[in-house]
Amino acid sequence: MLLAPAQLDQHLARGLAGLYVVHGDEPLLTLETADRIRTAARAAGAVERQVLQMDKAVKELVRHKLRNVLCCAGHAFD
Prior knowledge:
The chain is mainly α. The protein has 3 helices and no strands.
């Protein structure tokens, strides 16, 4: 499921997903988004987290796969 930052609070109010992937071209926005997810997780009782960082090759692969998914679903992708 893709969420815009404006949709995140509503999504988090309904409960947490098992995994979140935060990405974007605006570093501050991605940091703020991750903070909002962590805050909701702590409020829900989470005491542990795992952080995985992707290198450039994996990022490009994910971007390519995401572009294919979005194009097939009729969404615009830059």
